[in-house]
Design goal:
Elements: E1 3-5, E2 12-14, H1 21-31, E3 36-47, E4 54-60, E5 63-64, E6 76-85, H2 88-104, H3 131-143, E7 153-158, E8 163-170, H4 173-193, E9 207-208, H5 212-246, E10 256-259, E11 262-268, E12 271-278, E13 280-282, E14 288-291, E15 299-304, E16 313-315, H6 324-330, H7 333-343, H8 365-371, E17 376-389
Helix pairs in contact: 2-5, 3-4, 3-5, 4-5
């Protein structure tokens, strides 16, 4: 931890030296919520979001806040190690591998033309009790196994021993957005009826667990978390199919998966609370996690240290230092392309509008990792080779 701000109802604990005004404003709004528990955490990748900062962690007393979970519910990372050693010969194959992946995995706003196998969807739920999911289910069957846009990616990487890894970052697609929007609107409506003490302008409407609406949102949110994992797994299956065409004898290791943008009942400081991780991931002691950089910097497989001060959490990535529009407006396309070309990365910066995902739009991942040495320890450092983005 770098410092503590103790001017609000509860303290704000920061794992970064510098924080912009909007992010700090949102953190202070969280710290003054009547149900916020113990303290608020800002991870080293923190930057402003809707209502709650991305890279923020809040524990709440018997309350859930849709906007403190976020729109892309269950968005997360998946990584798998292969037994293939990277060689100059393989570098020549990467463009063909990427092209085959793009043929198998829809990106951006594209969905599958046909519904995918229902058996790949989350199975432990009664759809009758999930009204938004039930309404969106048919569409979700075509979204399953699709990447989306923004900061989502499929990346081929290598570790320091030159072993190839596959990493995927994606979430719950439009299904998660529909659930998030529905319950945020509902929470706003109910908060107004209750004359809630929370200022509606801070966009942190809440649902107490004494209400049916809170339980319903929690169940639909968890469906979206499981759907997001199913989505990543199907994309991995398709990527593995591509790799097998190039490397017939390839073997894959165990899946490492970690989600951000969710809330969960957990016990901290002797109390059962609802921990909201928005752009932050769980880092329980011994838990494996993934912290990606950008398409031009290292990513990391990490092991959680279970630090109680962060509610056993860590950052979910490098974090933005520029908004998307600012990056597109201010960065040089040619310079960003040159940087990535010099690194030998088959990157996705082709047009001016792609600059929102340029490495220069992100914080320094080495600094981010140094700022959370008390939250995680690095197990594997991965370097980018080739990337697919929406």
């Amino acid at each position: 931890m770098k410092r503590i701000i103790d001017t609000e109802r509860i303290p704000i604990k920061l794992w970064l030296d510098e924080v912009d005004d909007q992010t700090l404003y949102q953190a202070k709004n969280l710290a003054n919520l009547p149900f916020a528990f113990k303290h608020i955490c800002l991870m080293p990748d923190a930057h402003s979001g809707y209502g709650m900062p991305i890279g923020g962690v809040m524990a709440a007393d018997n309350v859930i806040v849709p906007n403190a979970v976020g729109v892309d519910i269950g968005c997360g990372m998946l990584a798998v190690k292969t037994d293939v050693t990277f060689t100059p010969g393989i570098r020549k194959k990467l463009e063909d591998i990427l092209n085959d992946i793009r043929r198998k995995v829809p990106v951006g706003f594209s969905h599958h033309k046909k519904a995918q196998d229902e058996r790949l969807m989350p199975q432990k739920y009664d759809l009758k009790s999930l009204p938004v999911v039930k309404t969106e289910y048919a569409s979700a069957l075509r979204q399953l196994g699709t990447l989306g846009g923004g900061n989502h990616f499929i990346e081929i990487q290598k570790d320091r021993e030159n072993t190839i890894w596959i990493m995927i970052h994606s979430g719950s697609r439009n299904l998660g957005k529909q659930v998030a929007d529905h319950y945020n609107r509902l929470a706003k409506k109910l908060n107004k009826q209750w004359n809630s003490p929370v200022n509606p302008k801070v966009d942190l409407a809440y649902l107490p667990f004494k209400t049916d609406e809170a339980h319903q949102y929690y169940n639909e949110m968890n469906y979206c978390v499981d759907f997001a994992l199913a989505n990543r797994k199907l994309m991995l299956t398709r990527v593995q199919e591509v790799f097998r065409t190039f490397f017939p004898n390839i073997a894959f290791g165990e899946i490492i998966n970690i989600a951000h943008n969710y809330a969960a009942w957990e016990k901290h400081f002797g109390k059962k609370v609802v921990v909201h991780r928005k752009g932050a991931t769980s880092a329980r002691k011994g838990e494996l996690g993934i912290i990606p950089g950008s398409q031009g910097t290292s990513s990391y497989i990490v092991e959680g240290l279970g630090n109680p001060e962060s509610f056993a959490s860590c950052s979910h990535g490098a974090g933005r230092k520029m908004g998307r529009n600012e990056a597109i407006r201010s960065l040089s396309l040619e310079e960003e392309q040159r940087k990535l070309d010099r690194l030998g990365v088959l990157h996705a910066i082709r047009r001016k509008k792609d600059l929102d995902e340029a490495p220069s739009a992100y914080k320094n991942i080495v600094r981010v990792m140094a700022d959370q040495e008390d939250l995680v320890k690095i197990k594997v450092e991965l370097s980018p080779l080739a990337v697919v983005k929406g």
